[in-house]
Amino acid sequence: MKLIAAGILVLSVVMILYIWITKRIGFAWITRLGLHFALAAVGIYAVNIAGVLPDVYIPLNPATIGTVLVLGLPGVGLLIGLKLTWI
Fold first, then answer.
1. C-beta atoms surrounding 43 within 10 Å
2. What long-range pairs does 22-25 form, CB within 8 A, spacing at least 24?
3. Is Transmembrane there in the keyword field (predicted)?
4. Less Cβ crowding at N or C end of the chain, within 10 Å?
5. CB of 19 closer than 8 Å to CB of 25
């Protein structure tokens, strides 16, 4: 099973490198990713500092920032909803 997973990983890396080289994507996506990462962290931090809901504190960790990166501002709402319903 590990051999199959390693094979898929190697094949994926080779395909990504092929696309990157042939399409000449460059490194602009890293800048956009960094900007989105920073804005996601600022959004979570603003919710924590605002204190609108005193029982809500969203930790700044890779899972929460990743959620906000993928979902955007509704991701912050999702994290608040999860925090209020589960804890």
1. 18
2. none
3. yes
4. N
5. yes
Top-confidence residue, 83 or 52 = 83
User: Is 71 in contact with 87 (CB distance < 8 Å)?
Assistant: no
Q: Write the DSSP string, 38-71.
A: HHHHHHHHHHHHH-SSTT-----SHHHHHHHHHH
Give domain status of residue 42, yes or no: yes
**Can you list the pairs that 21-29 forms with residues at least 24 positions away whose Cβ atoms lie under 8 Å?**
none
- Burial of residue 65 (CB within 10 Å: 0-12, 13-18, 19+) is buried
Residue 50: domain span: 27-86
Which pLDDT does position 26 carry in this prediction? Answer: 67
Q: How many folded domains does the chain comprise?
A: 1
Q: What is the mean pLDDT of the chain?
A: 84
